[in-house]
Each structure stands twice: as C-alpha cells, then as structure tokens.
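Think of the structure tokens as a kind of shorthand, similar to the way a musician reads notation: each symbol stands for something richer, in this case the local conformation of the backbone. In the example below we present two proteins back to back. Begin with the first one, reading the sequence and then the tokens, and try to describe in your own words what changes along the chain.
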Amino acid sequence: MSDQPTHYDIAIIGGGPSGTTLSSLVKKYNPDLSILIIEKEKFPREHVGESQLPGVSVVLHEMEVWDKVEAANFPIKLGGSYTWGSDNGAWDFDFYPAEEFSDEERPAKYKGQRTHTAFQVERDRYDEILLRHAESHWGVEVREETMVREILREGDRVMGLKLDTGEVITATHYVDGSGHPALLRKAMGVESKPTDGLKNVAFWDYYDNATWAVEIGIGGTRVQVRSLPYGWIWFIPLGPSRASVGLICPSDYYKESGLTPKELFHKALKEQPEISELLKDAKSSTDENVLTTKNWSHLADRLAGENWWIIGEAGGFADPILAAGLTLAHGSARHAAYSILEIERGEQDTEWIKSFYDEKNRRNVNQHIRFAKYWYAANGCFTDLQEHCQKIAKDAGLKLNPSQAWRWLAQGGFSNQNIETAAFGAFDLGSSKKLVEIFSGKESKFNITKFNHLTLNLKNTQQITQGKLANGSIEQVKSYQRGEAILPYTGLWKQIIDVLKVETDFQTIFESLQAAVLQGSDKGAQKTIMFQYVQVLEAMLIDGWIIGKHNKNRPKFTLNTGGSRMIRSAAEGQQAVKDSKSR
C-alpha cells in the first residue's frame, strides 16, 4: 500500500454503475488520466434496481461494455405491461413494436432493433461486469472493501479522502458515486430533501422457477406493473426462470397497517392474481426473508462544487414507477465525465461547464419526479390512497383534466433530456399524451393539429449557451431562453427553426421537412423521424416558440399523430406478440 501513489487525477467514491460509467468514459477519451475507485463492498454484491430504459444501452455501447452485458444473457426489455390509471384496465407500453421484433440469436450486436431495447439485469452480476470492465479494459484502479472514513475539506474544496487504512487519498477531481449514503455530498453540507408525496417504501424478494408473463422473440419480454388499492407490484424477469418481485407503497400506509414487511408483501401477492399465477411454482431464493429499502425521491441542492461532482443516486432519485434509476445514474455520470474531460483540456470556461452540468442534471431528475407525481395523483386504482393522491395533486397545484395536466407536466422542459429532439422523461410526447388519456379517461390531442398557419416567436428571449455531448467533448450550442423555456438551436429544433424563418403555411413547412427526411432514409426511419418533427412542433407550440392560427382561406392540414412508441390496450399488446410469432 505504501508503494502506491496517493494522488490521482480523479478519485471516485463508489463502484456502482455511476462510478464505473464516469471512469470508463474518462479513460476512453483521455487514457493518461489516473483514476481510483474506492468501493466499500466486495463485488459481486446484491442491489435492487434491475429494470432499465433504452437510454442506458446507448451509454453501455459508448463505454464499450454493451457486448459483455449482452453476453450475460439478461432478458431483453421491450417495454412494460401496466394496470394504472383512471380504472383497472390493463395496457402495454413498448419501446419497440413487439410485432416487428425479429428473432435473432444471442449474443447479438448493438444495432438495428437492439438500439431500441433495454436490459433487465441481476444487479450483482451487472454491476460487477461494469466494474471489472473499467478495471481490466480501461485500466482504472479499483480498491474494494475499502471505506472512506472522512472527507477532508476547506470551505467548498475537498482536500482529501481519509480511508479506513489511515491513508489519505488526494485528487484533482473528487466524485461522489456512493449512492444513497452520499458520503461526499453530506460532508460538503449539500442538502437533499425527500420529495413530498413520494415517500415510499419497497419490499421485495427474488424467485426461482418463476414464469414469464410474455415471451417476445428470443429473450424479449415486458416487465409487469400491477396496481393494488394501496400501492403497486413489480414483476421483473431476470433470467429464464428467475424474477425480482416487489411491492411499493407509501411509508405512512405501511406504518399504519400494523403489518411486518413480510406480512404486507405476501398479502399483496395474494391479492394480485396475475402475479400470483406467475409465482405458483416458484420458490423464494431468500427463504422469504423479504428485503426492504426506502425509495424516497429526492434532489440535491447542487451537484458540483470547487473540485467535486455528485453523480447518480447521491444527487437525486426519482420514484421507481418510471424505472429511471439506472438511466439517471448512467446519464449523470456520462455528463460529469465529459465535464471533467473539458476542464482538463482547458479550452472552455470551467464555471460554465459546472453550471451546465448542475442545471441540466437537476432539471432532469426534477422532470422525472414531476412525472412520477402525476402517475400517483392520477391512479384511480389506489382506492385506499385517495386522500394521499389528492394531496399530491393539490401540493403540486395539479389539475387532472387533460389540458391542465399537460400544461403542468410541460413545465419540466422538453429539450432537457435530449438536446436534439423533444422528449418527456422516459417517454416521447406522443406516448406522454397517450398516458394523459389513460390517466384522465379523456382524449388528449396534439394542439398543433388545430392550426394551418405557424409563426416563429422569438420575442423577449435571451441567448444562452447549452452543451451537446458527443465523442468525449461538449459542443457549445446557441439556445434561446424565455422564462423557464429553452429552445436549442441544434438537431431537429434547428431544422424546424430554419424552415419557420421563411415559411408560415403548415403544409409547406411539413413538406419541406419531409423532403429532407426522404434523402437517404428507409421507410421505417422516415416514419419515425417525421413523427419526431411533429413532436418538436408540438413542444415549440406549448412553450410559446410557435404561434398557431387557423387561416380560413387556407385548407386545413391533417396530420397522423400516431407515434413510433406503442401504448395500447393489453389485448392489442397480446395480439402484437402473436403477430411477432407468426412472422
């Protein structure tokens, strides 16, 4: 130990997905930087949070670890099946249309249909794959079974990390990837309060010999989310016959029930016939020693300081109903990696880099929290939690009719998750509007379809700079800001802005965009891109960047606003699976 250096370019507390993402990406783009990961556990170790979103796969591919994760033969997540909303009707949400999912042998490559899917992982195996990849493939130094006992600081500057060995580690950049313990964040006095209305607890177990609810192609499936009067159950296939099954309910409800975690968990299983059927031949792999945790949504007051960064759950967490935990962890770590790389290059303003990281990632977590509040407030299945859900809505100032709900949700920002197109948490705008319909029981239309005359509105704006992350660099992008709304001048936003500068007729605008798409794209891609244009137009209209009018002297322009992401009834989802098997 005494022969090892005590100073590193980057010292990371925590060897989970956020820490390994940051270290792998920094090493990929700047191999000369020295990195130390300090991990208190010995991997593999058990961890909850198995269900991913497709945004994780993009990052895994950039880390050059996707092939290793794919080789582990984790189930492919095409989407989810839910009972959630204004009634007990079941519906499915697919990232990629099940009827178009082709059989392909595994392990497969990250291309084609697999770029639209996610994994459902056993976290002990998954986290170890990522840690060993950072260590062996990228040369990151890893110390397991090592505790950080003290954060040495002077003001807002970290001076070192004192380990349980007595050694003091110093670094140019310090990173808190310690998850819920948030060792560095707490030591630096940064608060992160739980979100009102989302103070939930989770009880879960793992089962062997469980049955998948649906099999799509080779290795593909949907997670199951089933509402109860007092909470909801997840069923996540983790292998051919292994599953993670858990119950989420408000912590107050659990305390008032008078039941132990084990009693409440098994009560929930008995009351949910679909999940019970999947477990009828299954056996608990923990001898029914139910595992527990607090799943409290929270958001730190800031995510960066003088020489330190907070990534992953240490900085924020959104309720697991949106399955966004790993997406936020990988995404924030990727952004922090790019930020450190830019600071090391010394070509951009350090304070801008830090403020952009802090603002974007805090806004991203907050957008997911806002969406989760709407999910809970609008779930009519929670008959035992009606007062609780009404309070969530009231505290948020949320009206539940479609137009008011949509305006409230839109305040989360459409360009925050992907600077090149319009996104909404883990969903695109089309699927988000469909969710509003399911939750409210009323139709939620695209407002852009009401108009045939569109005018670009850049009045009373200020120009700001945002960042576009690619290939290890942050490109500064001109953007417009009016109040909280931000309009980036890049990607699909730029294409539409440029057309709107010279055209006002909706049909002419649409045909101009369509002409650009027709060059070099296959029909499937053309359909997807054109719907993305429609969503960007809708987002710009909602945020006031477009003023829409109906000119009676011009013909009405009709649009098909069916989306590329599929939300449909369970019966339609089942038919899609049958269609995929008959292809």
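Once you have a description of the first chain, move to the second and do the same.
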Amino acid sequence: MATACAGGGGGNKAASTKANKDASGPPKAGGRLIMATEAEVDGFDPTKNRFDITGLTYAETVYDPLAAYGKDGKVHPYLAESIDHSPDYTTWTIKVRSGVRFHDGDPLNADAVKATLDAHLRSPLTSPALASIASVDKADDMTVAVKMKEPWTAFPSYLTGQVGYVVSPKTLNDPNGSRHPIGTGPFTFKEWIPGNHFIAAKNPNYWQKGLPYLNEIEYRPIVEVQSRASSLSAGTIDILHTTDPDTIVAFRKDKNVKLVDDATSKGEHEESFFMLDTAKPPLDDVRVRKALAYATDRRTVVNTVYAGILPDATGPFDKNSPYANDSGYPSFDLDKAKALVAEYENEKGPITFELGTTNSAKNLQAVQLVQSQWKDAGITTTLKQVDQSQFILNALVGNYSAYLWRQFGEPDPDGDVVWWSSATAKPIGSLSLNFARNKDPEVDTALATGRHSGDPAERKAAYQSIAKRFAEDVPYVWIGTTVWAVAAKPRVQGITTWKLPDGSEGIDSLLSGRFLLSHVWTS
C-alpha cells in the first residue's frame, strides 16, 4: 500500500497562479491525452496491488475516492455524500451518493463500499493500515458505519487514497479482476499492456455532470527520466510527472512547456532518504546507522545530483509542514562517523552491506556518490538496481539492507502510522509495512496520541517527538525534501484548478505528482 507516496496539503500559490494564467476560457470537452508515468504497476486492485504514484494515478482514472483534499487543506466528501463521526471518534458514518453507477451499470450502494473495506480488512497488504477498524456494518442501502477499536480522528484522510477507492464487487471477486478494473470513475478501462501502455475511455455515464472533459487517456510508463523529458519535448507525449531536478530546472526555462511544481507549496511533502533495514546486521546496530548519518554530506548530494533545488531534510516533516521542528538529527561530521565505525569494527568486524535503488540513472548517480561518502568513513557497500515494482516488494519482505527511498508526504501524519508503528514491523520474510522494521515504544505512544486526540496542539507535539526519536535511532538517513512537478504542453489546462463535488475549490497543489485527470482539458 503506497498511499504514503501521497503528499501535499495547503496550497501551491506559485503553481496555481501559473495554471490560472495559462487557462484560456471555460473548459472544453474532447481530445485525447498521452501521459508519461515514472513506473509501471502490477495491477489495479487496491486491496492486492502495490500502488506507488503511478498506481494511484491509474486508480483515479477508473475509480473514485470516497474523499479528497480541498484547497483549504481539509478532507471533503467526494464519492461519499457525507462522512460523519460520533463525539468520541469511535464510529464513522459514510453515506454514498445516490444515482452513481459502476461502469457495468451496477448501482453504487452500501454493499459495494462494505465489500471494498472488508476486502481491505482481509488483505495482508492493506489490513495493517486499517487495524483500528473493528467492523464495517451496513446501516442502510446507502450508508455504512465503520466502528473503531479506538478513537481515530484522522480516519477520513485514509479515504482520499488507496483504501478509499470503491471497487465493484465483481472486480474483487474475479481472480483476474486486477487486470480488468470496474469502478465508478471518470474513465472506463479499455486496454492495458504492462510495460507499454494503459488506455482508458471517457465514461459517458459519469455521475459528475460535464466530466471528464477528455475523450481518452493513454498512460505510458517511461522509467528513465531523460527519456520521459525528451518525449515531451519531441511531442510524442502531452504531459508527465517527475521529481528529476534537471528536468524541472530545464522546463522552468522552457517557454514551450507549462510547468507546475510544489517547491513553494504549504503543507507536507515527501522526503528523499536512505531507508535502513534495522532488523538486519550490521544495520541493526544504532552505531552503524548513526555513522551513516554523520558520513552523509547532504548538501553535496543535493548540489551534485539534484541541481541544488531540494530543500534540506533532517526529519520526516519538511520546513513547510505544520509539524516542522528542530529534530536534532546528526549533521555531517566525518570524524564522528569514523569513530563510530572503529568502535563497531573492534567488536564485530568490518561494516559491509548492499545499497539498492531503482533502474534510474539519476538514482544510480545518487547512490554512487553516497557510497563514496560512506567509504570515506570506512563503510563498504555493493550497489544493486531493481525494477520499481520489485523494489517495493523487496522492501515489504525485507529483501534489502539500504534503499534510496521517497516517502512520508501524507497531509496528515496519521497516514504514516503503518510505516512507523512497531505493530507493522514484521520479521524479515513477512509483509511489513514498517519497511525499516524499526520498533520504538516512544514512537508508538506518540502515534497513539496523534490518532486519538482532537487537540491540534497535542497532535503537533506528538509528531514532533517522533522526528526527534528518528534523529536518535536513525532508521532513515535524510537527504532532502522531494520536489514534484508536472510538465505539459501549453494546451493542457486544469492541472491544479478544479472543484470538488460540493462546489468548493480542490487542492491546488500536487499530491506527490498526483492530480485528477478528470478535470484536465485541452484548449
């Protein structure tokens, strides 16, 4: 479950201003769009398949989320008509909109919502994220009551991502359903050739009148960042998403390209870092992890590999986040790194392990630079590149030691519970959403406070204490705050200017490269 790839919150003033300026009159219906994504997915079933940013983008083409973020940074009902809670936050009532139908004509109702949520509760992949749910009960034909084992104040934020997509029971019950998704979304599934393209056609019976504007969308996974950028410049695609700084810098200067990025947006963003498997020697020793932190010259990495545009990161919350604080994370100090390495080696011998990343030239450049920095401290690593889909699976089962990673962009930090809780830190070989397998009772206590409390100040203090614990225990070696961007031909409109079903403005910044294609149109 890669909802942790989602980020944002607040608003992107620079991006939305540019998008509004480029808009040319009211939206127009028609046209076809080709979008390049950074990876491929392994299927369309949110209860079974690993959704990274590409998976979430694909999913929002054929499915609708029960909720979505608005420009105000709050969660609003989307496919749901209303989402209400009991005074103690132990029961959430979800009422879905009437008159909505799945692509095959079946009506959306409480049974479908219950079937989706129940499937998540049975799923080895996504059930840990919903561990606080006691039961999902049908209240009436259009309403479900989600009963909790404990107060859960931020539950609606989960309905904006992977567990919030409502899937047809036929898809859930079909052994091949993950290859032929049926949803209520703005587009209907047409064709998917893994590694080549995914095509979806306009849903003529979509419940939001006038949407979508486009007649058809084609997605093409182009893993190599330079090839993706070149495809836009050459005109073989219309739009792409990227975190590649060189691409962002180049397109910022290109008058023939519209660029929307989240560099100045308020709210939380993803962080770039090296994730360490704390259950595996030698990284199970905090001295080794601290040595890696001291040996990493973050600014040199950002300036050399990331065109100098990534803001510094010293914890899971960036400077624009309402949860930002001085975590006390170790600064670059090669002498301290060498001292810790020497202390460890005197007891246990040389420090060696595998350092991994995806099949990207930019990522390879980053790990090679950090490999040399760690070598200066006396730490030996071997490099390995892996396809992104397999990369995520390796992290889930613990088939790695240190991975270059990008995560923790949830608008509400409660969305990070599954990644940080001791309860989801499973043994190597088992599916573990706590990829680092870091177990810390103090982190668990803070996560519980953040989940149960309705007091913003109390929640803020709890999450800031987690950042300080990470600085002490170092399950992550921070590099910088990720900058996401969407680049498109000038004729592409509506990337960050859209309205929610209730008429209010939708979030006007990128959610880690995500945006709703249902509201995009071409002039």
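Compare your description with these statements about the second chain. The chain is about 30% helix and 20% strand.
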